[in-house]
């Protein structure tokens, strides 16, 4: 804090600007070989499988019993290069390859068979389009699972408790900022009620037009209700005890210790940009010759 300079001298800063950051529980992602199947609900996959086998079987039946199929008109199509007989195996292969850019190959000769094939093509197009759209939305939702991206996000919600360690400079910073907001509001209110000002001037200072935010005041109240951890280990334990990234506890503290904790613990993550950034320096007695010696080292 700035008042330290009234009691001691500081050397030239030896470390970059370091501020206050947020430490939260890292989101958990499940990785499985069947992750792609989670995009659609199981009933949808069952219906797709049923339609696949039904279409393959119908292609086989229409090709066998239709009088206009190649199987029943080999003399008519003797000079035709397309001589595909749709067995059940061929029908299923046609259905699965129709969903790929390679295509299904030779189509049935009969009108009934071609109608079934065209219906499957339309169904496959709709399924692929739906799967692609749901896959993009599925991946996007996972990426933005954590709603907290900054201090403002943390202050604007009520599901996650947050607080610094008792007796630290971070706690003093938030307490001081809340006091400053309260003093500014008191001054503004006193000015708006000052009888020595004209009615026009007082109208400019309406309480509902107060231009300063009360963010830190609300955050200080929330911290007080949450309770302040007494040690760094206790704050890490409370963060780890959080059920998810949307509930539980978030620790606010010095960026250096928070960064170290996140690097040594895979279940913790640093959130947001640093605020109240200040450099690190060494404190010496006022007027001490060590100040210049250490600064010049």
Characterization of this structure:
Helix content is 46%, strand content 14%. It contains ten helices and six strands. The strands form two sheets. The chain has a four-stranded mixed β-sheet. The protein has a two-stranded antiparallel sheet with strand order 1-6. α1 packs across α2 (88-97), α1 packs antiparallel against α3 (111-143) and α5 crosses α7 (215-226). The protein is elongated.
Number of strands: 6
Low-confidence stretches: none
Radius of gyration: 35 Å
Percent range for helical residues?
40-55%
Shape: elongated
- The arrangement of helices and strands along the chain is EEHHHHEHHHHEHEEH
Strand content: 5-15%
Structural class: alpha+beta
Strand order of the largest sheet: 3-4-2-5
N-C termini distance: 25 Å
What is the assembly state of the chains in this entry?
Answer: single chain
Please give the count of helices: 10
The largest sheet, given as strand count, sense and whether it forms a barrel, is: 4 strands, mixed
Mean pLDDT: 82
């Amino acid at each position: 804090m700035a008042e330290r300079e009234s009691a001691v001298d500081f050397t030239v800063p030896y470390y970059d600007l370091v501020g206050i950051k947020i430490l939260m529980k890292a989101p958990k992602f499940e990785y499985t070989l069947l992750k792609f199947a989670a995009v659609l609900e199981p009933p949808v996959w069952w219906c797709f499988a049923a339609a696949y086998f039904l279409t393959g079987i119908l292609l086989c039946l229409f090709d066998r019993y239709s009088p206009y199929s190649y199987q029943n008109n080999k003399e008519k199509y003797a000079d035709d290069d397309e001589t595909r007989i749709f067995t059940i195996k061929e029908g299923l292969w046609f259905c699965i390859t129709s969903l790929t850019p390679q295509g299904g190959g030779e189509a049935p000769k009969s009108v009934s068979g071609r109608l079934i094939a065209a219906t499957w093509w339309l169904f496959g197009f709709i399924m692929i389009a739906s799967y692609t759209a749901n896959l993009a939305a599925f991946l996007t939702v996972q990426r933005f699972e954590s709603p907290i991206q900054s201090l403002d996000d943390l202050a604007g919600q009520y599901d996650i408790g947050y607080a610094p360690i008792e007796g630290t400079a971070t706690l003093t910073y938030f307490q001081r900022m809340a006091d400053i907001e309260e003093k500014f509001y008191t001054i503004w209110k006193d000015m708006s009620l000052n009888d020595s000002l004209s009615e026009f001037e007082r109208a400019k200072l309406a309480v509902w037009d107060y231009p300063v935010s009360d963010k830190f005041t609300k955050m200080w109240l929330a911290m007080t209700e949450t309770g302040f951890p007494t040690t760094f280990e206790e704050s890490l334990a409370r963060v780890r005890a959080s059920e998810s990234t949307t509930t539980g506890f978030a620790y606010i503290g010095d960026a250096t210790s928070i960064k170290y904790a996140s690097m040594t613990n895979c279940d913790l993550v640093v959130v947001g940009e640093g605020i109240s950034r200040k450099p690190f320096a060494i404190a010496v007695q006022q007027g001490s010759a060590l100040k210049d010696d250490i600064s010049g080292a």
